[in-house]
Structures are given as C-alpha cells and as structure tokens.
Design brief:
This protein has nine helices and no strands. By secondary structure, it is mainly alpha-helical.
Length: 319
C-alpha cells in the first residue's frame, strides 16, 4: 500500500492519518450526543462565538458545547487538509469525487450546526445535523476501506450484494429514527419495556408513536441482521465475511440491551451516549460488510461496473 500511496504522490503516513480522522469523526458524533444528554446544546447561546468570545468562561455545560465545537473545527480542518492532498495527487478520480462529496456535506453540516443553536434546537434541524454527520463519517470510512490493503476474497453468490445493501439501508434508517427520537426528546415518553404505557402499540402518532416506531425498527433490524448472519454462514466461503456478519449481530445485541437500559435507567448519560456510539458502530460494520461484498465482486452485480466507475474495487486494482 505504501507503494500505491507513493505512486499517487501521497506520503506513507496518509493512511494512518486518514484512519485517525475517521476515529475523530466517530468521537465527534458521540460527543454531540453527550452535549444533548447534558442539555448543553444552548449552553453557548450564540454562534460561531460563545458568549461573544472565542474561549468562554468555564462552566461544565458551556464547555461541553465549547469542546464539541473545537473538536468539530479540528475535524473540519483535518478533512480539508487531507482532501487537498488527495486532489493534488494522482489517486483514482472516483476517490476524489468521494472526498469532494464529503467537503460539500461538511459545509452543510457546519451550517446545520450553527442553525441548531440559532433556531433553539429545532427538532428537524437537530435530526438532520446527526444524520448528515453520520453520512460524512461513513463516506470517510468507505474511502479509508478503499485505500486500506486487504486480500480480495470471494464473498459468495452475487445476490449477497443486495442483501448487504438492504442491511446497510436498514441500519441507516434506524439511526435516522433514533435521531428523530432524540431530537424530539421522545426517549422517555415510554418508561416501561417491552410495553409502552402497558400496551404494545399504544399509538403511531405524536412523539409516543415516534418512540414506538423506533422500537419496531429495532425489532425489524434484529430479524434482518440475524437472517443476514445465518445466510452468510450457509452460503459464503469467505471467513472474513462470516466474521463480519457475526460481529454485526453481536453488536446489534449489545445495542438492543443498551436501548432497553436507556429506558429503564431514564436515559442515564453514560448509557445514552453508549447507545448512540454503538448505533454508529453497528452502521459502520454494515458498511464494512457492504464494502467487502461490493469491492470483491462488482462485475457480478453490474455489467461493466456502476456507470463506468470501478473504484468500489480495492484501490490496488487501479495501480
């Protein structure tokens, strides 16, 4: 891989720094959840400054929000720097398209971060802020997986592509539902489990309905990921893919447990943040499965590739 980076005109440390950037964005999403749980979203009532200053006075809630902004700024600068290096290199064109996509959505994310404060935590803006952040994270993760050295394995039947795509979409949809529940402060509208106010499905409207739909989404995702694991165990010759599918299901089990604990502990801060972080972790593993299946056998799914783009193959094939 160092030879590939050298041929593209990128330094040997580029991959390690890109990996650090992906981890930083993961931590940033978890930190954003901490800001919401600690009710610190409006601790700095103005934007981009905080109480009209660059560095505000110390107060726990204020610094939760302030540190979140600082980490977001560092992540943005890191993304910009690595993007410029990618654009100036001779890396595959499609990688440059992806990093360009990240920059565009990063601009939207910065705007939504400001609007979150200026519009007083409007639920739609808060949810969009989370989902856009998750989108940036998974796109950076895709780029990292594309340039990271790994052996190409036969994942199994071509239709595993569609199965992996379904798994990824289902996981992303559940993240969206979770974001809506959090943004509307609907986590505690049902404080019992497995029922809600003594009923399985009391309503599908309002914030109670939103909470119930989120629970239904978790049930559906559990069935999908269990079926995904069992199918891959039976049809895939790839040990790596089998391992990923197993890890994915175990992560989901942990996520379900955290979701239940989140209700029973009345959204204890540590549990709530862990629930958000594990949700992004589940989404990451679904992307890892999807990337492995698509990167290994793209031509078995689309004749001649997807619109002529073959960058979903391992990048080593381009050099």
């Amino acid at each position: 891989m160092r030879e590939n980076l050298k041929q593209w005109g990128l330094p040997s440390w580029y991959l390690a720094v890109f990996n650090a950037l992906v981890i930083l964005f993961f931590c940033l999403i978890a930190l954003g959840g901490s800001v919401r749980i600690m009710k610190a979203g409006l601790a700095c009532p103005d934007w981009p400054l905080c109480f009209g200053t660059v560095i505000p006075y110390y107060q726990p809630q204020v610094y939760f929000e302030f540190i979140h902004r600082v980490v977001a700024g560092l992540a943005s600068l890191g993304t910009l720097a690595l993007s410029v290096m990618m654009f100036r290199s001779s890396a595959p064109r499609a990688l440059k398209y992806l990093i360009g996509f990240v920059l565009v959505f990063l601009c939207f994310q910065i705007v939504f971060g400001g609007l979150t404060v200026l519009l007083m935590l409007k639920s739609g803006v808060v949810a969009t802020h989370l989902v856009t952040g998750a989108g940036i994270f998974i796109t950076l993760l895709w780029i990292y997986l594309s340039i990271k050295p790994a052996p190409v394995e036969d994942p199994g039947p071509p239709w595993l592509f569609w199965q992996s795509l379904l798994v990824f979409i289902a996981a992303y949809g559940q993240v969206l539902l979770g974001g809506l529940v959090a943004a509307n402060f609907a986590s505690l509208v049902c404080i019992d489990f497995p029922t809600c106010h003594g009923e399985w499905f009391p309503t599908f409207s309002g914030i109670i309905g939103l909470h119930v739909i989120h629970r239904l989404g978790a049930y559906c995702l559990s069935v999908i990921l269990l079926a995904n694991w069992l199918v891959i165990l039976n049809v895939s010759p790839s040990l790596r893919l089998r391992k990923i599918a197993g890890i994915l299901f175990l992560c989901l089990c942990a996520q379900v447990c955290l979701g239940i604990a989140n209700v029973l502990t009345l959204t204890h801060p540590l549990v709530a943040v862990s629930h958000l972080a594990m949700g992004i972790g589940v989404l990451s593993v679904t992307l890892r499965q999807f990337h492995l299946v698509w990167g290994a056998r793209p031509q078995s799914v689309f004749r001649g590739g997807l619109g002529g783009f073959h960058f979903f193959n391992r990048v080593e094939r381009h050099v």
